[in-house]
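Justification of resources, computational component.

The compute hours requested in this renewal are based largely on the per-chain cost of generating structure records like the one below. Each record pairs the submitted sequence with a full structure-token output. That output is archived, and it is also reused by downstream analysis tasks.
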Amino acid sequence: MIKSKSEQEPRGIEIDLTGPEGNAFVLLGYASMWLKQMGCSVEERSCFLEYMKMSSYDALVEIFDEKFGHFVTIWR
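The structure output for this chain reads:
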């Protein structure tokens, strides 16, 4: 879930969207790396990354959070 720092407790990995890690290409890189670690095939990773890129930056962040939010804290 994407919240301000005052509203949420960290869950391990933290990404601050206002810093360099908030760049869309960095988020896509993390997604690719973690999907590979989760055992997803090249085709599955490619499809997911294309899905992330289909709309706006905000949509990309929401999709990223839906997939990885259980172990990543995203600060806005």
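The two ends are 10 Å apart (CA to CA). Residues 2-75 form one domain.
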